[in-house]
Structures are given as C-alpha cells and as structure tokens.
Batch of 4 targets.
Target 1
Amino acid sequence: MRNLDLALIRTFVAVADHASMTAAANVLNLTQSAVSQQVKRLEEVLGGALFTRGRRGLAVTDAGERLLGKARRLLGLNDEIWSEMTAKVTRGSVRLGVPYDLIGTSLAPVLKAYTEACPQVEISLVCNSSPRLLEALERGEIDVAVIEEPLGQSRGECLGIERLVWVGARAGNAHLKPVLPISMVADTCAFRPAVLSALGEQGKQWRTVFENGNIEATTATVRTDLAVTAWLASTVPADLDILGAEEGLPELPPFAINLHLSRSQADAPVLELARHIRAGLVRQRQAA
C-alpha cells in the first residue's frame, strides 16, 4: 500500500495556490528545481498530470482539482493533530512588529487565535514601516516581525507573495492630474522606493500629499480623492478602486511577506506565535 508524502502534498498545494513553481519555491524555501521534482514525483505516484500551463501560469487539471480540496483538508488535519498532541501551556511574553497595513487585515485574526491558544502569554505589538521593524529586530527591541520586502531581497521566511497595486477613490480622478498626488503612510514605507522608481521610469511627475505614519489618514486622503496610494492587493478596502495601466499608471513589482525571528530570543512564546502566523496566512490564501 502506498502512502502519500505530506511534503509532496504541501508542495502541490503551494503551487496550486500561487499558480507558479517559482512563487511556491519562495514560499516553501526550496529551489524551483526541487519543487518541480516534488510535483513530478507526486504525479508519478498518482498516475496523472496535476497541472497544465496556461497564459496566466499553471492551472490544476481535473485530477488536480479532485486532489486539491482533500489535500488542504489533509494538511489542516495534520496541523491540528500536531498542535493538540504537542500542546503545552505556554507562558511568557513576546514582542511582535507588524506594518501598519497588515495589522488590521491579515494579522488581526491570527493574533486573536494566538491569544485564545496561549492566554498566559503577554503580547506587545509594535506597528511601524517594514524597514524600521527590521532595525528594531536587529536591536533586540522586538522578537518577531512580519516584513514587506521586494521579492528576492530577504533572508526571512517567505509566507506569501502579493501584487503591489495602485489604489484610488471609487470613480475618482486624482490619477488623472498632470502631477500625480501620492499619499504614502510614511517616508520609510517599504513600497516607496518601488513606487517612485516605477514613476521615474515612466517619466511621470508626482508630489507627496501625506506621509505621517498614520494609515487611517492615508486612507482618508485616498477616499476623498485627494491622492492615490500603493498597497498590497489583499489589503485594499472594498470601497476603493485598484488602478492600473488603463488609468495611465506604471506596473508595480510584487512584494513578499516575510517572517523574521530574533536571533537571540527564540523561546516557546516566540516559536508558537511564528507557527500561528504561518498557519493563519496559509489559511487566508486558501480562502481567497
């Protein structure tokens, strides 16, 4: 009797979620060759192709579709069993650094789940731009950081890859102004160099409307059509528009969401929080 290798199943799900061997390799911290070999091995075990290549990347075959739902349930059950059977009372404290735009979207449910699972742990939350959080981690001021970084420029653990997109008011016209008004959360925002580089390559003039470390104020300037901004696609509020080439704006590069742990402080609360962050972001990608 043949048994399914969970590592192969995990790789299959990552490729299916990202429609790309390269993106899956970044998420899994593997080489693209290793991902390709694992997919091929799983296809040999199951006796059929799991992916086809289309215009938008890899797409699952009919066999892959039949496998995908069961594969996700299998991985979820595996993680649930592991968590319950190895559960210990975790006590202590942990300092978490998160960018402004992720705390209210991706990480809020993760923190709720962590506090319910580890009620004896005290969490200190630090919100700042990704570059500032990396500096705080190096100084030992935080224990865990979720960082937004240009793809391929990190030593952290890649949890996902996101499109960086232009965002404007619903049916707004700020993007039509001769000098593009831009509202960024802070002048240290991780997206700022990529945004300004893209505008420079296009030869488009721009001016800053707001950079003061307050994401609510940034959102307000966009909602009132005073400016446009750039956010990860998953963080864009439903009442705002994603803008692109049709609106005369340059394409922006993808960004990785990376997990960084303190080199000197990797105790039980830190490691358990890291596990919750990994699992939580994976569930969100699967539900998207």
Target 2
Amino acid sequence: MKNSSLDTAWRRTASTIYQKPTDSKIVGSVEFDVTNLHAFIQQKRRDGLKLTPTHIFTVATARAIAEKIPEMNSFIRRGKVELHPQIDAMVSVLLPKGQMGSVKLEKVDELSLEAAVTQLRTKIKTARQQQDESEKLKNGLGNIPWPFRTWVYRLIYLLTIRWGISLPGLSTHRFGSFVVSNIGSLGLDVGYPALFPVANVPFVLILGGSQEKPWVVDGEIKIRTIMKVAIAMDHRMLDASHGGQLFAYLKRIVKQPSLLEV
C-alpha cells in the first residue's frame, strides 16, 4: 500500500543518494563532564553573550584540527587524499515546520566565541528566510521521475565528489570540513550520525543532551552535569586515533573553556 505522507520529496531523494551499506565507517562516543562548561556558558549569557554548547564544540573542534589534527580537514578527490583550503563547519539547525537544515561557518578556527555567536545567528536567520527557496530546489530534485533521478544524482556525485569539479551551487567544499549537530536540543541523549554521501566531510560530530549523574572527581563521588558526544568518521581518511586526539582536546576545553578566549 502506498502512503503519500511517507513518500516525500526528501525520502525519494534519500533513496537515490543512499545505498545499502557496504563501506566501513568508525563510530564512537565519549561522556564529557560539562559542569564547568555550563557554568562558563551561564556566566557569558549573564554578560550578554548568548553562548551555547554548539558554539563551544564547533570552535574547539576547528581549533583542534588547526593545531593538532590536520588530517581531519581532508577529503578524497580522484583517488587522492587532499586538504580543504580552510576549516569550515556545517552546523545543523532547526527550521520552521520542524524541518532540519544546515548553515556553514567559515574559517571557524580563526573565530572568537563572540564572532561565532554572531555569525551563526546571522546564518540561521538567513536560512530561515530562504527556506522556501531551498524547499523549491529539494522538491525539484525529488520530483525527477525514477530512474532519471538516480542518473542525475550519480552524475552530480561523479562530477563533484569523485572528480572534484565545482558546479554552480555545488562546490566540492560546499559542506565544509565537518558537520556538528546538537540533537540534545531535540530531546535526544545520544545519536550516531550518518556520513552524507554527497558531502566531502571526513567526520560528523553529534552533541547529545546533558543530565546530572554521580561522577568520580578526585576519588570522590559528586553530582556532575554529563553530556555524551558521538562521532562518525570516514575510515578512508581517519582512524580511531584521530578521534581519540580530538576528544582529548575537547576534554581539555570543556574542563577549562576560557582557553578558547586566548
């Protein structure tokens, strides 16, 4: 039985882009003690800066790449591993009518926290105003009859991802260096992301919800605020060691977030 409410333009698009999984990817998660981070954010908000964990983790991740792990800014073009020209982050945002979208922050490793807040707020406002335009594009692509829809997507994938040719509105670096999604704002504690096949990003970072838990601090059990952060990495470019280096850097930042102000 056909259900029109399920057979949306996006689902038809997704069925064209995704195939049954045959390639490997690495997934993992770490619990962070974000008690100090939350206190830092609350102080900044009292000072007038509307900071969130998304800003902190996005900037910290970009700086970790710039300072410690340049391999996490890589992509594959024509069978070779190359570096993106700069460190950009694609941040998932909630749009009107419950739709998910994304905005790109450019040169995130060079941004201050204040600049990150301002740029993300501006980009989200623009994305919400232009939602109708993006919906027209999505519906236009999703309404291409099958099997022509499959051929169109395969051609786009071949040109932009495999061969690295930039098309109008479809740059090789369109999705930036990595993706950050805060599913904790949606009420989810943890999630393991998919690697979008038509995006040249080597990893996706997922921020879960925060909750108070008993936690061992200096040999004593205390109540702390804990957040679970998950990652999915493209095993063609990255290994588990790269994720370990990233999480070690992030742990240092959430323990002393003022380091990002240096």
Target 3
Amino acid sequence: MTMKIAKMNGLGNEIVILDARERAFTPDEAWVKALADPAQGLGFDQLMVLRHPKSPLADVYSDIWNADGSKVAACGNGARCVAWYVMREMNRDNLVIETEAGLLGAVSAGPNQISIDMGEPIFDWDRIPMSERMDTIRIELQVGPIDDPILHGPGVVSMGNPHCVFFVQDAELAPVREIGPMIEYHPLFPERTNVGFAQIVARNHIRLRVWERGAGLTKACGTGACAALVAAVRRRLADRLATVEVDGGALRIEWRDSDNHVIMTGPVALESEGTVG
C-alpha cells in the first residue's frame, strides 16, 4: 500500500509530510537520511509522519524526525504545515495535533496562514533538560576568552524541545555556523539543543538566526522563534507580542499573559505532492 507524501515549507523551513494513517510504518534512521538527501530524496529539515491520534481530543498524531535521522518531540513550522495539510483534507479551519510534546491547537489565520498554540514554555533546568542546575534566565555559559567572551549568558527554554538563545548586537554577523555546532553538542545539554542568535531590533521586533538541532543552519525555526521571544521577555528586552524575523521571513509570536501559552502565527506553502511505496 502506498502512502501520500507532500513537500511543504514554512518560511523556507523544508518540511516533508508522510501520511502513515492507513499503513503501519516507522522509518529507520537510514531511510530518513536518504529521503532528507536532496541528491537521492526530497530534501528536508524535518519529516512529519502522520498517524491516527491516541488522544480522543486530537484529530491527528504526528511523529517528527530531523534530517540527521534523530527523532524529536516538537517542530513549530512542521506543525503549521501538518495543520494546513489536514485542515484541507477535513475541510476545517481548526484542529488539534497530538505530538510527543503534547496537544497543539491550530486555527486558520487567513490564506496559507496558520496559528498554533504551542503551549507553555518550560524553564526548569531538569525538564529542558540540562545536566546542571542553573537559572535558565541567564545560564553560566560563554564562548571565547574568559576575560573577553564572544558570547555569554544565554537564556534557555524548552518549547517541547530545548533551545539556547544568545542575545547579539547583529544577527547577520553572528557566528552561527561556527558556534552553533559547539553549543548543540555541549555537555550542558544531554539531548543536544537548538541554538538561537537573537538581535533585539525593537521591543516588538526580534531578528533571529537559528542553528537547528539535527538540521544545521535553517531558514526558519518555529519553536526557536517562540523560545527567542520568551527568553527576551524574561530578560525584559521585549514585549509579549512581537514579530520574529528569521532568514525565511517573519513569524508573529505572542506569549499570552492570560494562560502562559505561546501562540505562533505564520505562512505555509505546498511545493509538491505524490505517493511513496
């Protein structure tokens, strides 16, 4: 039995959706890597595998793999793509996606625009997780000489996946490729981490570049944008509602005071559809 497959993107963050609701299928690492390789597969940053939901409150379940074959619990841009794909199928303008990280409510916010309720951010060091107890508003971590570090004191937050956010003067000049891999694999992060480089342009505007765990430098990272806004608000650098500008475009992020939930709104695009055996 073949499965439906679609190539989508959220602000350039390459997403592949594989519909395994009618066929028991779990990809292995080699299969994921081959599909992620643009030379032999479709090429992607994240693979979202659709299954029937376990929760009676959800409309669909999504497993998530990074391009390097590692399985993860959350992907904000991927969730927006899944929401659009399933809403179109069900002729709905709202639904609930179940992931390993929990239930995500999604609503249509206009043509090819999706809002996702990403839930509450996590700040507890052992739940992020980190290997040492630290104040996650500003952790004890620096890059470079002790007396003149290149980067230091990042904020750490989990949006269902771990994020380490450095605040920089100029995101365009940030050493994302050089520093990103070092921090991703730092011993402080036993499950590795995503690494953000955030520039506060204004209290309602953040410029962000992201080294994504398992994918590398990416054009967009939805959970990364959420984490950057939350980390900035915790440092009193930004308001609770802001535009987060990533390499692929802009996301609207709101950390609601009423229920502590983070709402992410942004575009999605369908590139191609087909089937796979």
Target 4
Amino acid sequence: MNSDIVDLRSFYATTLGRIAERSIAMALSSIWASLPDERLVGLGYTLPWLDRFGVDAERVFAFMPATQGAVVWPVGGPSATALVFDEELPLADSSVDRVLLVHSLEHAENPRETLKEIWRVLAPAGRVVVVTPNRRGVWARFEHTPFGTGRPFSRAQLNSLLREANFTPSAWSDALFFPPSKRRWMLRFHNLLERTGRRCWPMFSGVIVVEAQKRLYQGLPVAKRASRRVFVPVMSPQGAQTARMPPAL
C-alpha cells in the first residue's frame, strides 16, 4: 500500500507527525555534512526536511512519485516540485550532489532500480541519504502512520541493497524510539523515550537513516529493463470508444 499525498500532509499536520518530523530531523543532523553550493533533490515526501536542510543549497528540487501525488512547494515562491517516476528521473547524468529519500524506497516497485537511477544522476562525489521504516521497529506495525505502509528494511538489508547499487554506506543513524501513540499523555514523554531508546534499544528504532556515497571504481552492467510504466493523465477518459460515423450516401 502506497502513502497518498493527502494522507502524508494530514499526518505531519498532527501533533504526532510534528514530533516525528523533529525526531527524524535530529537523526539527519547527526550525519548531514555541509556541502557548499550543493544541488539537493528530495524524492518522496521530503518537504519538512528540505525546508530545514536546503536553506544553504544552490538549488533544491522536490520530486514526488506519481503513485503518491504532488503538491506545490515552496509556498509563496516559484514551484520546485515535479511528479516523477522514480526509475526515470528527469535529470542529466551527474547533475546533483545529494538525494534525500523519505517515504520513497519502501514504496518503490524495484528499490534496486531506483537506487541505480539515483546513482546515475549523482555527481562523482554525490551522496544519497535514505530514511526507511525499521523492520524491527514498532512504527512499521501500525498503519495509522505513513511508516506502517510499504516495505520496511533492516540495517543488513539496506546495506546489501546499497552495495548492489554501487553505493558505500558511510554513516548510520536512527529515530522514532517512542511509540506511535496519539494519546497526549504518552506524547509528553517522547523526549525521554527518544533519549533512552538511543542508548538502550537502538535496534528497535522506528526508522533507519543511512548516508551512502556514490562508488566509482566498479562498473555497472548494462542491462535492458524489462518494462516501462506508462502514465495516463487522470482526466483522460478510460474505456471510451470512438463513435462510428454512419457511411456517406
């Protein structure tokens, strides 16, 4: 099941969503190295973190998968969003410095092909930062948050997947150690549970955050992809047949 853009915006507008956003931002801050004049692309639903980490970037784009939907961003300025297919990004080779994935890889039809496409568009020293639900975590088991949809990963699975796509994981972090409860009395203790979880049960975090660098010393095999998805505009009538004109007399 894929997360819809309406559901994602609604979740991050709630108290639980805002706390989850801050928890993930803390995890990203611990591995996010400053790059001067970087070209940053967010793939998935990355708007809350692009606002925070894209301030000093030369340019920032928000790519949203077609199965998710898109919204205009930033508010009050020229739109920097695009509706894309994650295996065919509308970018030239080696054109961006960093790609941030949130609510993306767990919904990808073929995660390996998605990462290979990101490898293509990244500059030689480019980095990909991935945020995915943790297979061992509690958040992946409840569907009232976006982290309970899609395919969760373990650290070992993410490490293997990144290496298969010619990335070298360089830094790891975790977030969401408190339970995904909507009860206000429980949310009051989220700071205490977050700090305690980082020390006592890091393997049971809600999400895994990993930064990986593009690897250049190994060639990629050239293989033709088996299929291509064809997008149809939502306003295009489905199943309509062209009316036949009567024969001319």
